[in-house]
Design a protein that fits this description.
olfaction; 7tm6_olfct_rcpt; 384 residues; olfactory receptor activity; single chain; mainly alpha; 12 helices; Odorant receptor; cell membrane
């Protein structure tokens, strides 16, 4: 399963988020990579500070405030995502290493098909989301090159030292902003496609468990007639043990994954509310045929899709785990102890897996509806 996340892991490494733990990597390479990570952190945090300072001069004007906060909140959120992955290096490595567990390997053609289909979906989401965010930031940059350079303006609202605002220093400040925003966009991509992939893999785990439980009777009957396995109770014991271990793994994986990223998702949830409403507010006084209008439309689509994917994957996992109880009905050929084991599994599955934002908001389609309502409320507040 870890092969489905190869693009996500590579993207995180390119952005300096996942350090190499391989013993074959030379010590000087580790130090150089950490220096590279520190350089990106410094660039993004200083960029956020310059935008934050610019925000103080716009409190009395709603239009200027919307312009100043337009991308600031997204930039700050990206910085927090970056710190989240760096701080949780060991936990993320543990999550990824668990995907190599032998219990997750396919046992027959149907399981191989389940993994293949879901693996294809992970790759499609990764590629499409990557393309959308890359297109969005590229659209921003190209529009800025056409619009801002002739006027000697910066692409984003910020307060830079005087030396970087005039003469040749302008070009340093301009391309500093471009590089910083290009990096933060790629940090968002790296974080999001990694988390999307892990959420989809957790859903795949549940599908595997449901399939294995549904085949208990057939498996036991098949192995009971084998000349090498004629002890039916022993076969039943090992098969149910295998299913129980998978169920425990699923809940532990979900708990560890949710605990690792829950606060970043929580921040993203409310940041997107602000970003969507600020962009919508800017649309109200932007010319429909201007370059800025197209930029805002693309940005709103990107922000909306970003939080929608979190919510829909959380909804899918909850739905799959909630229907697990309905697949635990293979009683006919089991012994008394086997039936007791299935009852215990059924009781555990009565509490479906739920991913949360900061342990407050549950990721679901209802949460997505709520964020749209919150964005609309903030939009009305800005108008007043």
């Amino acid at each position: 399963m870890i092969s489905y996340l190869s693009v996500s892991i590579l993207w995180c490494r390119i952005m300096g988020l996942l350090w190499y733990s391989d013993d074959n990597v030379y010590n000087w390479k580790r130090k150089l990579y950490k220096f590279y990570t520190g350089l990106i952190i410094f660039m993004e945090i200083t960029m956020s500070l310059t935008e934050f300072i610019a925000l103080f001069g716009s409190f009395n004007d709603a239009e200027e405030f919307a312009n100043a906060s337009f991308l600031l909140v997204t930039h700050i959120c990206g910085c927090l995502k970056m710190i989240n992955i760096i701080v949780k290096q060991n936990v993320i490595s543990k999550l990824l290493s668990t995907l190599l567990d032998n219990n997750l390997q396919p046992r027959d053609d149907n399981e191989t098909k389940i993994l293949s289909i879901d693996g294809g979906r992970i790759r499609k989401v990764t590629i499409k989301y990557n393309f959308l965010v890359t297109f969005t930031i590229s659209y921003f940059i190209i529009s800025s090159l056409i619009r801002d350079i002739p006027l000697h303006q910066f692409p984003f609202s910020c307060t830079l030292p005087q030396i970087l605002s005039t003469g040749k220093g302008y070009w340093v400040g301009y391309f500093y902003q471009i590089i910083a925003y290009y990096n933060i966009a790629n940090i968002h991509i790296a974080f999001d496609i990694l988390l999307y992939g892990l959420l989809m893999i957790n859903c795949t785990h549940i599908k595997l468990l449901k399939y294995r439980i549904s085949k208990i009777n057939k498996y036991i009957e098949k192995m009971s007639y084998s000349k090498y396995n004629n002890n039916k109770k022993q076969i039943e014991y090992y098969y149910l043990k295998d299913c129980t271990k998978l169920q425990i793994f699923i809940y532990q994986f979900a708990k560890l994954l949710n605990g690792t990223f829950t606060y970043s998702i929580f921040i993203q949830y409310f940041v997107n509310s602000i970003a969507i409403c600020s962009s919508a507010f800017q649309l109200t006084y932007t010319d429909t045929f201007s370059k800025e209008f197209g930029t805002l439309i693309v940005y709103i689509i990107c922000m909306t899709l970003q939080i929608y994917l979190y919510c829909i994957f959380g909804e899918n996992i909850s739905s799959e785990s909630d229907t697990l109880t309905f697949s635990l009905d293979e009683w006919t050929s089991l012994s008394i102890n086997g039936k007791k084991s299935l009852i215990i599994m059924m009781l555990r599955s009565l509490k479906p897996i739920k991913y949360t934002c900061g342990y407050i908001v549950t990721l679901s389609l209802d949460a997505f509806t709520s964020i749209l309502k919150l964005s609309y409320s903030i939009f009305n507040l800005l108008h007043q």
